[in-house]
Amino acid sequence: MKKLIFLTLLVFLVTSEDEQVSYEGHQVVRLKIVNDSQREIVNQLVAKHRLDVWSEYLNDIRLPPELKDIFTQAGIEHTIHIKDLQHIIDEVHAENLKASASDDFFSAYRKTSEVMNWINGLKTKYPSLITTSEIGKTVQGQSIVAVHLQSSKGSSTKPRIVYNSCQHAREWITVTTVTYILNFLVTGYGTNDTITGLVDAIDWTFIPIVNVDGYDYTWNGNRLWRKNRNKNKGNNCYGVDTNRNWPYKWNTGGSSNDPCSDEYHGPTPGSEPENTALANYVKNTPRVTGYIDFHSYSQLWMCPWGYSSSLPPNYDKINKLMGPIVDAIRGTHGVRYQKGSIANTIYVASGSSADYTYSIGIDYSFAVELRDTGNYGFVLPTSQIKPQAEEIVAAVLVMANAIKNQN
Asked: Which residues on adjacent β-strands are paired with residue 27?
């Protein structure tokens, strides 16, 4: 009988893990924090109730129904930015389902299998330009696929630029943006002189889905899941924030020791296979000169340091490039991005990708927060997929031209 009860409980736990999480009645509020004392109160409430901070830069926090009055009771002024989160999720899901029937890959958000099928189709269509490789496996044993774009022309010692997205699973817009950049460069090669010149001068690597397990879970279980899917020891909580787990200035601030927190940094630096695979690829690949880790949301273009408010040694050089980059974004659809170092622009975040890549000698290491500024947050409508991608294409072309010219 005890064994039967245990097995029944086990099945329940597994089933519960696979069920779709509902956010009915959840709100996203924007706080107006006026002093350090209020900031400390907010930090204490976030830690105590394990609140989901959507954007520390914008002071956006998701509140479940039972905690909807928590900031009112604490005397923190705020506005309701999203009144019914599940309604927004359902609305975007419905429009995505309709748009996904289109032959246009970029009309909708795509599941992992669709992204991989699209990449394989691109490789078949452009065999002289596109190759793929597995750079590692996830916690659950899935392949982390890198797509390599390189022409046979140009120098044998070309610089390389690496783009990755979806370290944080719920940030779907990053996947469509990175694949759009890849498509733009591939289809423009041989037909557009500027693109042809860049592809001949630079090798490129795209890793569209770093956190494959987490991304799949956002489709099949919890749309707002952030971390990977590692089962943490000693508790019932899943996941490590892989962008707090990189082996440089790990656990020096801006991350959490709580395994149930969305910003849990893991038990040791580099403990997670997803970011370790990416770190090893970047470190062991010759001539990586540029790196971008794409995230959402808040519309920010940022450089190191994240672990400290101090500026990197060549900040003036980096900032000189960030100016034209954000200008190019604004010149596309009028959208404004803020620029600066991570810690001074958004918050202190140790163990991050951009800090690590900068520390191994990649001066142009950036962390980018894509659209929007909180109207939809992580649940961006499909109508914004292409405009978002188009403005980032303009930005990465500025960066690529700078790297081409200095080489």
From this structure: 63
